[in-house]
Write a structure and sequence with these properties.
Helices cover 35% and strands 28% of the residues. The chain is an alpha/beta fold. The protein folds into 2 domains: 118 residues, Rossmann fold (3-Layer(aba) Sandwich), CATH 3.40.50; 181 residues, Dihydrodipicolinate Reductase, domain 2, CATH 3.30.360. Helix 4 runs parallel beside helix 5 and helix 5 runs antiparallel to helix 9. The longest helix has 20 residues. The structure holds nicotinamide-adenine-dinucleotide. The site of nicotinamide-adenine-dinucleotide has 24 residues, from loops.
Length: 335
């Protein structure tokens, strides 16, 4: 069985520790947090050794795999230390704070022969997994538009990232994953509405090579939590509630039931609404399970370091676009 450890056991990291504890394929051997009381509390909860210096944990416990869930501005430094020691790592999203750091991290992991996964967790949401399967089967036909909404109150513990790289990166990654296509341009509007230090409102547009338009509506100023994704195609619209893990399909009755070379779309009319049964599971358990099995089987994880890098590049291009009021032409590769 692989030995696993978690570095940074705050809000999300303590869940990584719990999931490592619950998975059959990995044994949680220890946790580290620079806050001594936090490390002690989580160590005691899972009955494992705890450290305030993560390098000591690595040297003494020699884990095979680690999850890194320290604040974003520390991802690069901690990640490089772990890679240097030849340990496989899952880095929480966003991969790093800058594209240059992400490139260096990916290159270092490759050079050392360690696996680098990134915690873009929505790919493991069972409603997203089902949506992706059905899009691939062609249930929506040609996709015209993909629209994500991620709205919530401001989380005071996030002190080192704006809403685009912290929150919208989830949806940027999802759009790349679902469309599996090159992105050719992006345009963003950002503003600081309530938060004094960093942007807290973001609206973005992106265009895929095949013409699909992506719309992002993300903020930290909404007094309720909304996580929604819709995909509109020739045959109808998928509506996915990411929080509730629910998926519906609204049929376009005007779409021909059989497409052949002579078929064409005559218009859009309301048809049946299908509630799609979702086999629910915890996305974090699926994410860490995928990481551990990728290490065990010597394959790439579902979200690679390069995916994290491309998503960060797009997120920062959106910020650049917002700052300069200009469209950014992209050559963002497909996943
Ligand atoms: N995938 C997701 O859905 C998701 C959700 C929440 C957070 N995150 C990401 O996880 C990371 C952590 O976010 P959080 O909300 O858990 O923050 P947090 O502040 O609650 O936790 C971070 C922890 O890291 C510890 N820490 C700081 N410096 C350290 C160091 N040098 N060594 C060891 N520990 C150190 C802090 O004491 C704290 O306990 C961020 O990058 C965030 O973007 C991802």
């Amino acid at each position: 069985m692989l030995k696993g450890a978690v570095i940074g056991v705050g809000s999300i990291g303590q869940n990584h520790a719990r999931v490592f504890r619950e998975l059959d394929s990995v044994e949680l051997v220890g946790v580290a947090d620079s806050s001594g009381p936090t490390a002690a509390k989580i160590g005691a909860r899972f009955n494992v050794p705890h450290y305030s210096d993560y390098t000591k944990l690595i040297d003494e416990l020699k884990p095979d795999v680690v999850s890194i869930a320290v604040p974003t501005s520390l991802h690069f430094d901690v990640g490089m230390e772990i890679i240097k020691r030849g340990i496989h790592l899952l880095m929480e999203k966003p991969i790093t704070s800058t594209v240059e750091q992400a490139e260096e991290l990916c290159d270092a992991a490759k050079k050392q022969g360690v696996l680098l996964a990134v915690g873009h967790i929505e790919r493991f949401n069972p409603a997203v997994m089902e949506l992706r399967r059905r899009l691939r089967e062609g249930m929506a036909g040609k996709i015209y538009k993909i629209h994500a909404q991620r709205l919530s109150p401001y989380p005071p513990r996030i002190q080192d990232a704006g809403v685009v790289i912290d929150l919208a990166s989830h949806d940027i990654d999802l759009m790349r994953y679902l469309m599996d296509e090159e992105i050719v341009r992006v345009y963003g509007e950002i503003s600081q509405s309530i938060n004094r230090d960093r942007e807290d409102v973001f609206n973005g547009l992106m265009r895929f090579k095949g013409g699909t338009i992506g719309v992002l509506d993300v903020n930290w100023i909404t007094p309720t939590k909304i996580r929604r994704l819709s995909v509109t195609g020739a045959r109808g619209m998928f509506d996915c509630d990411l929080l509730g893990q629910q998926l519906f399909f609204y049929e376009n009755e005007a779409a021909p039931s059989q497409w052949d070379t002579f078929s064409f779309l005559r218009g859009v009319t309301e048809g049946n609404v299908l509630g799609i049964r979702i086999q629910r599971h915890e996305p974090l358990a699926a994410e860490l399970g995928d990481f551990v099995s990728a290490v065990r089987d010597g394959r790439q994880p579902t979200v690679t370091g390069r995916d994290g890098l491309e998503t960060l590049r797009l997120a920062l291009d959106f910020v650049r676009s917002g700052d300069s009021a200009a469209v950014v032409n992209e050559v963002s590769a497909a996943p």
